Amino acid sequence: MKxxxxxxxxxxxxxxxxxxxxFPDDTLDLIDLCYFDANEYMCLAGDDIExxxxxxxxxxxxxxxxxxxxxxxxxxxx
Length: 78
Hints:
- The protein is an alpha+beta fold.
- The chain contains one helix and four strands, in the order βαβββ.
- The strands form two sheets. Strands 1-2 form a two-stranded antiparallel ribbon. A two-stranded antiparallel ribbon has the order 3-4.
- The longest helix is centred in the N-terminal third of the chain and has 10 residues, at 7-16.
- The radius of gyration is 15 Å and the shape is elongated.
């Protein structure tokens, strides 16, 4: 995962998604814009979640592991 430090780029993504009313300029320093590589995990089952992810661009799979260790695709977000 890479984090984007530029508030200007954060603002561009927020504007493109139409989220200016949700994330006004005074919240930009509180937001982490993150880039994930293909097949990189955002979080794993059992992790303590300390952030709220909003997927602006790309795809995401929601896949818990079964008791047999196999992955089960619950959702595919685009």
